[in-house]
Amino acid sequence: MSFRDREAGGALLAEALARYARRPDLAVLGLVRGGVPVAATVARRLEAPLDALVVRKLGVPWEPEVAFGALGSEGVCVLNQDIAAQVPPETVAGVLRREALELRRREQRYRGGRPRLHLRGQVVVLVDDGLATGASARAGVAVTRRLGARWVVVAAPVGSPFAVDQLLEVADEVVCPVQPPDFDAVSCWYEDFDQVSDAEVEALLTWV
């Protein structure tokens, strides 16, 4: 099964999350950038507020789809030790420096004049467009926990069974309707998987 685009993936995901609709304590967060269009559809259908959570995947330079970890705000750094051990330490350090700068840039841009996230006591649905290694989502879970979320659901239209199993160790629930055993890359499961721009993210957040 593949999805026409991220909005179509979000529509299927919203059906799987229907039991959370119209909860007064619900917040839907899209992982920047690819998760935001999916999360926007989920938030509209669940009648929940939408926001963005900036997490930076730490990609292996010679194979960018593969993450050896992820960075998040609140000082969160999650490493996949099995993959990180195969990357030279100086390469790891360089990727960390570059991605930390980009994390700060995006947080400043996307938050704009809006206050920082307040999640204390909230039920949070953390949305991405797909789960490959799960590193970005793991970092996202850690950030939402530090911000006081009471219950954290990781949600994506498609993901690898490995990533789902890993995320079940840190999230309260993982909702992933399509878990192909032959999962390769997230992009393989979308007909339209164009990169999401900063402008698109900002536009989707304007209706919050």
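Above is the first protein from milestone M3; the second protein from the same milestone is given next.
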Amino acid sequence: MPLSRSGLVGCQGAPMRRSALARGMTAVPLSALVLLAGCGGGDTDETSSTGTAASSTTSAPSTAPSTTAAPPSGAATGTDGPTGAATFPADTSPDSAPAVAGDGPTVVTAARVAEQDGFTRLVLDISGTATPGWDVAYTDTPTQEGSGTTLEVPGSAYLRITLTGVTNPYEAPGVAELASGNQAVQSGSVLGVYYDGVFEGQALAYVGLDAPHPFRVYALSNPTRVVVDVQD
């Protein structure tokens, strides 16, 4: 702002003549000199800092639904015994075990076959709580118990399964025994199963294979089952 009529103006005014400045110096108060010294007029640098927040986008992992195919109705599933081809303890030697007593009639009621990891499983369902004994071995020709008649069993190698300690059909009224003849079961290395029936307290069945394969036999309870695993 102007300080006097002598021609001295503020910092934004036009420059004064040297003669006018000389004439007016004696009349300029000290405060005006201080004001002149403070007129810098320079621009002020303003530093703008723009912070950009990092945007983190996390996608939820895509989880494909797990689909497990249900086993066929009546199949011999993994719950019927151990699995794992890598630890399959078997050979082609005969396998036998004694019967274990229990309650109720001991009757073969069903035969089930299903492929497992590296082997095929045959399960013979047994009524009652007793466990029949077994004698399982390869035979050249499948024959009927008692008559010796040759049986037509699919395959070229035959595993003969004899169950001991079973109940004669006439001693187990109301318990349906598995029908004699070729069963509608085939899977993996098992080409067919033939159930011959009971003769003098022994049940006889044959497993038809394409060649002799290592096998193992064991029993399970609740319900009672005799299991034959044939390595593929």
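Note on the second protein: The first strand starts at residue 95 and ends at 97.
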